[in-house]
Design a protein that fits this description.
This is Acyl dehydratase. InterPro entries: HotDog_dom_sf (IPR029069), MaoC-like_dom (IPR002539). It is built from four helices and six strands; from the N terminus they run E-E-H-H-H-H-E-E-E-E. By secondary structure, it is α+β, with helices and mostly antiparallel strands. A hairpin with a 3-residue loop joins strand 4 and strand 5. It starts with a strand and ends in a 6-residue tail after the last strand.
């Protein structure tokens, strides 16, 4: 199994979560309003899962040309809170004739897995 160059992200901030809420249209207050999150039993607001998936997608498109990516799917594993420092790791699990079978995971600084997924990449790059 070959490991790809990890992508280290800056710590998640409240303002980043609020900006993502505006961009996505997901204004669920558990993501943006601290008292609502605390009322739900959480220590703070939580980042949108799709924000974390976007970070995984960013890493994938630094590892491979976007035209090579055939599919990308994830499973969310754990909530992400402001202040967490995330690292996106990728692995080539299998090589086929024309395809790479890969895995991606997003971990925080405590090695807690936030997201795990798979993606397939064509070995052939398309010319622009």
């Amino acid at each position: 199994m070959a490991q790809l160059q990890p992508l280290i992200k800056a710590p998640i901030t409240h303002s980043q979560i609020v900006r993502y809420a505006g961009a996505s249209g997901d204004f669920n207050p558990i993501h943006t309003v601290v008292p609502v999150a605390k009322e739900a039993g959480l220590p703070d607001v939580i980042a949108h899962g799709m924000l974390i998936m976007g970070m995984a997608g960013q890493a994938i498109t630094t590892w491979f040309n976007h035209d090579q990516i055939k599919n990308f799917s994830v499973r969310f594993q754990k909530m992400t809170f402001p202040g967490e420092e995330l690292t996106v790791k990728g692995f080539i699990k299998e090589e086929r004739d024309d395809l790479l079978i890969c895995e991606v995971e997003v971990m925080n600084e405590k090695e807690e897995r936030k997201l795990a997924g798979t993606f397939h990449v064509s070995k052939e790059e398309k010319n622009a």
